[in-house]
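User: Hey, my collaborator sent me this sequence without any context and asked if I could get a structure. I don't really work with proteins. Can you help?
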Amino acid sequence: MPTAQCVLIIDDEPDIRELLEITLMRMGIASCSAVDVSSAIMAIKQQEVDLILTDMRLPDGNGLDIVRYVAETKPDTPIAVITAHGNMDLAIESLKSGAFDFVSKPLDVNKLRNLITQALKVKPPTGHQLDTGMHAKALDMGQSAAMQLLQKKIRKLAVSQAPVFIQGESGSGKELAARQIHTLGPRALGPFIAVNCGAIPSELMESEFFGHKRGAFTGATEDKQGFFQAAQAGTLFLDEVADLPLAMQVKLLRAIQEKKIRPIGTQNELDVDVRILSATHKNLDAMVEAGEFRQDLFYRINVIALTIPALRERTDDIPLLSQQILQRIAGNYELPMARLTAEAKKELHLYSFPGNVRELENILERAFALCEDDTIGAADLNLNSRYNAEPSPNEPAALAARAEGVSLEDYLMDIERNVVEQALEATRWNRTAAAKRLGITFRALRYRLKKLGLE
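Assistant: No problem. I've predicted the 3D structure and written it out in structure-token form, which is a compact way to encode the shape of the chain:
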């Protein structure tokens, strides 16, 4: 028989303690209490609890002291802090120190209940077992020292509600890491909504993120649910967050801080309960310095940073990744799995993979289609052509002579088509990255793709 769950309340205000006790009682959860740091630490030492709720300001110290103590002595026990309204700096500091989440005064009972429900999923009642099979599978990302360290960090971050900023090169696996954090956390049964911020036209961003009501603007023929609503009780992953325009950054900051959104065409705000994960391959610090990204938003999404190593920094993982990719490809095509020859494995080990894991996937998929007898040799990988694929910046590409009878307009269009195709190939058809490579806006690239018939 599992024992009843118990929550430790730490607050010197009788009214707050009573509100918390009543809320927990109505949820069928037992509680105990302490009024200051010293009595709280004594209680934590003497009994096992499933969750700790602590006020930030206490007579003999502050909640951060307790957060740090719990992080060191009982890291598996979630702790949430209660902060004064508007004291965002302390709330963020508590998250960095190991707090699960925070709630601001005056206490909103619905938000409080959601927090308690999510937190208690981190530490299930005694006698309940975690789905270790699911957890082990979720962390199958590589066995190199770099990936073992990354997996350890992911496990730790998964049990928190702190926003995580994931940085790494294109194709290194930022979205995969975000999905692992979601899968291993208390929101695993909720939705995981991944959004490519660079692929949304600026005029549609507010509607896409916050939704709209029917008739809110021309073309709004029905109510639309935004990303925040779709991710309710789950995780919202903002990929390429650096591509958000400044006007949208302001609105996103408010939604994250207040945990409320207002769909276009409505006067009422809606409460949202989502965990925010974000990622980019760009240097956000430099963008903040240049005024291209809001410092307050960066401060809010970058509570905890997670860096994904490039594939060239963990070459020991290439054999395992190659096997997983080839198994998946074979399953997709319902064909026998191909194997790599010793020479092919050596070629992959020596290659630098500027496109990281995504490039490895593309190389193997093409090789799978070209190989014979289900055996991939070094020649099937075609890596030799990739070693010198990038032209020197000081060596302009030679232009083909204009054929007689070809108009100047057609000639220039062919050149433009080749340049655009090269940029798309170099970025694995990531339009946002290709636009940056070409030095044009995403909108301008979309126009050119349509004009050149490359859509």
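In plain terms: The first helix runs from residue 14 to 26. You can pass these tokens on to your collaborator as they are.
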